[in-house]
Design goal:
Strand 4 and strand 5 form a beta hairpin. Mean pLDDT is 87; it is low at 6-18 and 299-303. 24% of the residues lie in helices and 26% in strands. It is α+β, with helices and mostly antiparallel strands and 303 residues long. It has two domains: 2-174, S-adenosyl-l-methionine hydroxide adenosyltransferase, N-terminal (Rossmann fold, 3-Layer(aba) Sandwich), CATH 3.40.50; 187-291, Elongation Factor Tu (Ef-tu), domain 3. Strands 8, 9, 10, 11, 12, 13, 14 and 15 form an eight-stranded antiparallel β-sheet that branches. Strands 2-1-3-5-4-6-7 form a seven-stranded mixed β-sheet, sandwiched between helices.
Length: 303
């Protein structure tokens, strides 16, 4: 019996140590790659979590744009295994001496951990969901050094504690409140959906906030027209892949996140730069879908 208990204890210790040394950490930041910031963050992680597996989600977030950070993390977190720790280094400096403070916050959601300043990221990431666990780290009151490069000096040490299986309640306080950044929702009426471009990827593809579920509510076989820029630019069918249309042709698909995407098949080259440059569409511009279900007789007016 003692031998069996010893084996169980050794297995628990091995599992804990293995998880610590193989911990997956993701980084999302608005620092860009020009300066030393990303290297400093990765160095700090490796100093505290040797052999950590560090994954870059994006370092090209628009400065302080927590909604864009939420979009990027939301788009890929499901691909990571249970126990992954996501560090969001966007608008990361805590605000503690104001009427509307923001503290470093740890969220557990669907078996993964998210560490961010409470600046609206958490609420925007969750959308209609709720956190499984939520904690506020308020020791920043007692140590000014945590406010300097807070991702490196505060968020990463918190991640190291989580990786070592130290109970979060020993260093952070449970909370139920979190902020939500503004997130544009599609406007849906009887015969149309009016959405916006929420992201333009590196191929120049236009990703909108219109979902497949938004489309499906009008019926699978209902005719529709997608308008962008003006009445001269439209698409009237959803393709399964980019290559469903000839090279250089406009195409609409639902991407891997079930968001409506407008692109040019193989259009991201030096000549056109993709749909964004060819059509002159920018972030925040309107994309309108008009449906003509059987029995509806009306003249649609575009915007």
């Amino acid at each position: 019996m003692r031998f069996e208990l010893l084996l169980v204890k050794l297995k628990i210790n091995w599992d804990t140590e293995f998880q610590f040394y193989m911990q997956i950490i993701t980084l999302t930041s608005d620092t860009g790659l020009q300066d030393y910031y990303v290297a400093a963050m990765k160095g700090a992680i490796l100093k505290l979590i040797p052999n950590a597996n560090i994954i870059d989600i994006s370092h090209s977030i628009k400065p302080f744009d927590v909604a864009e950070a939420a979009y990027q993390v939301q788009s890929c977190y499901k691909e990571f295994p249970t126990g992954t720790i996501h560090i969001i280094a966007v608008d990361s400096e805590p605000l503690i001496n104001t009427s509307n403070p923001s503290y470093p916050t740890i969220m557990k959601f669907q078996g993964q951990y998210f560490i961010s300043n409470d600046n609206g990221f958490i609420g925007t990431f969750l959308d209609e969901n709720h956190p499984d666990e939520l904690y506020r780290f308020d020791d920043v009151h007692n140590d000014d050094s945590l406010l300097k490069f807070p991702t490196k000096n505060c968020f990463i040490p918190l991640a190291a504690k989580i990786a070592q299986n130290i109970p979060i309640t020993t260093f952070a306080k449970p909370t139920e409140s979190y902020k939500r950044a503004f997130k544009q929702k599609p406007i849906i009426d009887q015969y149309s959906i009016q959405g916006t471009v929420i992201h333009i990827d590196s191929f120049g593809n236009l990703i909108t906030n219109i979902t497949k579920n938004d489309f499906d509510r009008f019926g699978a076989n209902t005719p529709f027209t997608i308008y962008y820029v003006d009445k001269d630019y439209f698409i009237d069918r959803i393709s399964k892949t980019y290559n469903d249309v000839p090279m250089g042709e406009r195409v609409a698909i639902f991407n891997s996140n079930d968001l409506l995407e407008i692109a040019l098949n193989r259009g991201a080259n030096r000549g056109t730069g993709g749909a964004s440059k060819l059509f002159g569409v920018r972030m925040g511009e309107i994309i309108r879908v008009e449906f003509t279900p059987a029995g509806s007789h009306r003249d649609f007016q575009f915007m």
